[in-house]
Amino acid sequence: MKSVKLNNGNSMPMLGYGVFRVEDGEQLADKVYFAIEQGYRSIDTAAIYGNEASVGQGINQAIEAGLVKREDLFVTSKVWNADLTFEQTKAAYQESLEKMKLEYLDLYLIHWPGKDKFLEAYRALEELYKEKKVKAIGVSNFQVHHLEELLSTASVVPAVNQVEFHPRLIQADLRAYTKKKGIHLEAWSPLMNGELLAQPLLEELSAKYGKSPAQIVLRWDIQHDVITIPKSMTDKRIIENKEVFDFEIQLEDMERLDQLDDGTRSGPHPDEFDF
C-alpha cells in the first residue's frame, strides 16, 4: 500500500477500508479482519455509523492473531454533530476508544462543520492532539469557507479533510485550497455508492487498462493525490479494490475522467445539511 506523509510527519495509507452504512455485528468484524489480512492498513469508521465496536473487534482479532501490530494500522473515527461542544467532543473521543477497545486513534475528524460549533469542537481536538491522545486531527465535509474560518483561529492545521470526491464531483477549488494549506484530501463515497460504475467512459477505460470500473476510479483518486476509502462487504471486491497500484492512467484519460464533473453529489451539500 502506498502511503502519503501528512503535515505533522505521520504516514497515512493512500487506500483504506471504509465501513459507512454497514451494520454492527460479527460479519463486519470478520470483514475488517479479512481486509487487514489482505493488506489493508487503514480503517475508517465514525460514531454515527454505529459500528465502532465491530470495527474494533476485527482490528483486535487481527492484532491477537499476529497479522499486524497496532502501530502498523491507521484507524480513523469522527465526532458526530450532537457532540460538538468542547467537553462533549473530548467525551465522544473517549467513548469511541472504549467501543473500539483501543488506546488511541491515528486520526480523529469533525464529521460535519454544522452551523456554528466546529470551532469549539476543533479546540477540543487540538487539546487531544497536544496531549498525545491522538496521532493526527482533521475535518470532514469542510468547504473552503469553513476551512478559512477554522484556520483563522486554529493552532494546529488539519491533517486531513475527508469529503465526497469522485469524477462527477472533482472539487477543483477545494483541492487547490487544501493543497496550498498542506491539508490532505480524502475521498468518501469514491464510487458514488456504485452509481458511477455504469458510466460508458469507465467501461471503455476498463477494457483499455484491463481493470474494473471501480479500480479505474480508485486509481484516478490516487493519481490526483487523494486518499480513498472504498467500502465493500464482498471478499472479491475487497481484494479487487486494493489492486490499483500496478497500473497508471494516462494523462489524457485522467482529463477525460475529470470532464465527467457536473457537480453531482450522492450525499448532502455541507452548507445545506439539516442538523
TrEMBL record:
Every copy of the NADP-dependent oxidoreductase domain together lies at 22-261
From which domain of life does this come?
Bacteria
Entries under InterPro entries matching the protein:
AKR (IPR020471), Aldo/ket_reductase_CS (IPR018170), NAD(P)_OxRdtase_dom_sf (IPR036812), NADP_OxRdtase_dom (IPR023210)
> Which keywords does the record carry?
NADP, Oxidoreductase
Q: Which Pfam families match?
A: Aldo_ket_red
Q: What family is it from? A: Belongs to the aldo/keto reductase family.
Query: Would you tell me the protein name for this molecule?
Result: Aldo/keto reductase
Task: Look up and give the organism this protein is from.
Answer: Terribacillus saccharophilus
